[in-house]
Amino acid sequence: MSDVKKKNPLVECFMHLVVIVVIYTVRVFMFVWFRPKVIFTGESVKSVHLRTPSVIIANHTSMLDPIMMLAVFFSHKSIVVAKDQIEDPHFRWALTRAKCVIPCDRFNMDTEWALLAKRELEKGNNVIIFPEGKCRYDGLLNEFKTGFAFLARSTGAPVLSVGLDGIYKFGHRTHIVVGDAEKIERVKGITSSKHLAERSEHFRQKVWQLKQKALGASEPKALPVAAETPEEVLA
Question: In 126-230, at which residue ranges do the beta strands (DSSP E only) sit?
């Protein structure tokens, strides 16, 4: 006898409806409570309704960052989420039913997420990625993993860099600064791994500058390259 439990279609239909209601409710809450202010700094992008399916990257300072990014870039979106978070029983019921979620195993070699992300781009959807892979709370940025750069280079989709101030509290208006879209093209004479690493660091520095603008820094401090950035000291 098979141990696989069949899903009740009526229950699944109801749960999908619940997830949709939750998504819209949370979006309204994010806009009312945190009043996000989106600032565009370049000429190629002037709206969150992107004309071209893009790989959207941002810094990761809070667990609310993914929710805010989904709330702002609400149309034609998908987001890469750590597989272990999807499997967490607290979130599994919603994340497994949210059609915009792309699972990624961040602890093992995983290429399936890139194939799923490629399909999303081909369908006309944007793909939101946090290249650091985890939150960092001391104000610096972790090294950017090269997966987003590989995805952008292999599909031709532009990379849209976003800086989040990462401040979510009542009375503070969360600032989101959006840069120009930029493509990653192959370069002859340089190995693929070296090229992807170089582009990843380029975008890491770009996101850093956008984050400083979101924080209102008049004189942004320099961010050391990933190899020279100290590990975060956990309390």
Answer: 126-129, 159-164, 175-182
Q: pLDDT tens for residues 30-89?
A: 999 999 999 999 999 999 999 999 999 999 999 999 999 999 999 999 999 999 999 998
The side-by-side arrangement of strands in the sheet containing 159-164 is 37-40, 175-182, 159-164, 55-58, 126-129, 77-82, 101-104
As a whole number of angstroms, the distance between CA 151 and CA 159 comes to: 10
DSSP letters for 71-119 = HHS-SSEEEEEEHHHHTSTTTHHHHTT-TTEEEE-TTS---HHHHHHHH
CB atoms within 10 A of CB 83: 19
Q: Among candidates 68, 198, 204, 197, which has minimal Cα distance to 140?
A: 204
Indicate the CATH number for domain 9-228: 3.40.1130
Do 161 and 206 meet the contact criterion of CB atoms below 8 Å apart?
A: yes
Q: At what angle do helices 65-72 and 9-34 cross, to 10 degrees?
A: 90
Q: Which residue has the higher pLDDT, 124 or 8?
A: 124
pTM of full prediction above 0.85:
yes
Burial class from Cβ neighbours inside 10 Å (0-12, 13-18, 19+) for residue 94 reads middle
* AA letter at 166: G
Return the domain boundaries, the chain: 9-228
State yes or no: pLDDT of 5 exceeds 90. no
DSSP 227: G
